[in-house]
Specification:
Layout: H1 2-18, H2 21-27, H3 29-59, E1 63-68, H4 71-81, H5 85-89, H6 100-109, E2 113-128, E3 131-140, H7 142-147, E4 152-155, H8 160-164, E5 169-172, H9 174-180, E6 190-193, E7 196-204, H10 211-216, E8 225-229, H11 230-237, H12 245-248, E9 252-254, E10 257-259, E11 265-267, E12 275-280, H13 286-300, E13 307-310, H14 312-355, H15 357-365, H16 370-406, H17 416-441, H18 445-450
Parallel strand pairs: 3-8, 5-7
Antiparallel strand pairs: 1-12, 1-13, 2-3, 2-6, 2-12, 4-7, 5-8, 6-7, 9-10, 10-11
Length: 452
């Protein structure tokens, strides 16, 4: 009997809503906006979390990066930020630049360091038959592939002989393979990088990172790289640590400042390396080791700030905190929309109770109990809220994909987001519908029948 009444009250509620379709739809607009906001908020939050995890995979939480600083920018900053002559002269101290000796020093002095991976990058053009492609030739060690999570899909990694013999071999990125070897297997075939021929011994797996994500991390596209042993680059390409007569041009040299014959100065890049990746054995020691590395580098470079020490873990934590604040703002907006939608439902249901006093009186007169009237109006509120929630879920999912297509914000819609939005819309209907339903169920039959 209770189940029958329950179903009957639900049917009556649906019939009442069918008679006022437009009003029901307008009432649910607030719930639609709120639910769509919840879906979009969760999608953006999940997308941000996934992006941060990808960045962690690229940079590594155990890594400390030492980068060279643009000498021209450093000289300009020194001139604008210092006023005394003595401070100005500090920038003219001799510095050997970033070299392999720095890597050896860090590894030998700090026992908590697992390995130090040097990197040299040269922008040039790769040539194979009649095909050309702009690439970055990277002189690396075997540790570099581990530090940057670079996996080999075909072929092999570098072996000890490749480094001892400065062998003209390389591992190519997936985009290089697709551009220069569209139909052939590149293994054991040669390509020309700049003026040097290199034999392909391996193909790096496609990493599929977005351009915006790499730009935010100040990284290049790894899929467009050609990796070769660092000894090969120093012997066959260029060794910037070696100063020749043509480099100096018959003029005096002071560190990275070249004094020309006419008295003018020119700043050149005399860093043997472009970057060092220091791999710490335990991520807990990263923040302890960072200041030690800075002191070692300052002493080796005579106090000249021609390098920068970057802690990826710290950058990612800062980004994560920024994204968290952004998600909180979105959650507040979504909550306000849901509250406004709930208030709209309550307002309409209260007005509906006043409009249908005679209907309520007749139902009570023919035997309907307080519970029946309560269920009827509560069902109406829940159905309005739930229908708005379903529409909001559809709008939210579609909106999440539109956001990703229209902007650089990555969104990920999981099954949990629609489920959460579904139950939230039901909860809003119950919370904001209970007051009008109780008001209707507590009315006295005589007063209801007498009301015109």
């Amino acid at each position: 009997m209770i189940k029958l009444n329950f179903s009957y009250n639900f049917i009556i509620a649906l019939e009442a809503l069918k008679q006022n379709k437009l009003r029901s739809l307008l009432t649910s607009l607030g719930i639609i906006c709120g639910t769509a906001s919840v879906i979009a908020m969760l999608a953006i939050g999940k997308g941000a979390e996934k992006e941060i995890m990808e960045k962690m995979a690229i940079l590594g939480t155990n890594n400390i990066i030492i980068k060279t600083v643009d000498p021209k920018a450093e000289e300009k900053n020194a001139k604008t930020s210092t006023t005394s002559t003595e401070q100005s002269k500090e920038t003219e101290k001799f510095t050997p630049g970033l070299t392999l000796e720095d890597a050896k020093a860090i590894k030998s002095i700090i026992p908590l360091v697992d390995y130090v991976s040097p990197e040299i990058t040269i922008e040039n053009t790769a040539l194979r038959n009649s095909l050309t492609h702009k690439i970055v030739t990277c002189g690396v060690t075997s540790d570099y592939l581990k530090a940057n999570n670079i996996k080999i899909s075909e072929g092999r990694e570098f072996i000890e002989q490749d480094f001892t013999k400065s062998a003209p071999v390389c591992i190519i990125g997936d985009k290089v393979r697709a551009r220069l070897f569209p139909k052939d297997n590149p293994l054991n075939k040669s390509l020309k990088c700049g003026d040097v021929w290199l034999r392909v011994v391996g193909i790096a797996r496609n990493r599929g990172y977005t351009e915006s994500g790499l730009t935010a991390l100040d990284l290049r596209d790894f899929d467009n790289d050609v990796y070769t042993p660092i000894n090969t680059v120093l012997l066959r390409f260029v060794n910037r640590d070696v100063v020749t007569k043509s480099d100096i041009g018959g003029s005096r040299s002071s560190g990275n400042i070249i004094i020309l014959e006419d008295g003018t100065t020119e700043i050149v890049n005399n860093n043997q390396l472009d970057r060092l990746i220091v791999r710490v054995k335990d991520s807990k020691n990263v923040m302890k080791i960072t200041p030690i590395i800075k002191r070692i580098m300052e002493r080796r470079h005579n106090g000249v700030k021609d390098f920068e020490v970057v802690v990826p873990e710290l950058l990612l934590k800062q980004e994560k905190e920024t994204r968290r604040i952004f998600n909180i703002v979105l959650a507040v907006i979504a909550s306000i929309s849901l509250i406004v939608g709930g208030i709209g439902i309550m307002n309409i249901m209260l007005a509906s109770v006043l409009e249908r006093t005679k209907e309520i009186g007749i139902r009570k007169a023919v035997g309907a109990k307080k519970r029946d009237i309560l269920e009827q109006f509560l069902f109406e509120a829940v159905v309005i809220s739930l229908s708005g929630g379903v529409i909001g879920i559809i709008v939210g999912i579609a909106g999440s994909y539109v956001i990703q297509l229209a902007t650089d914000i990555k969104t990920v819609v999981t099954i949990g987001s629609p489920l959460l939005a579904f139950f939230v819309s039901i909860a809003v209907g119950i919370i904001f519908g209970i007051l009008p339903a109780r008001k209707a169920s507590n009315e006295i039959v005589i007063d209801l029948l007498r009301y015109e």
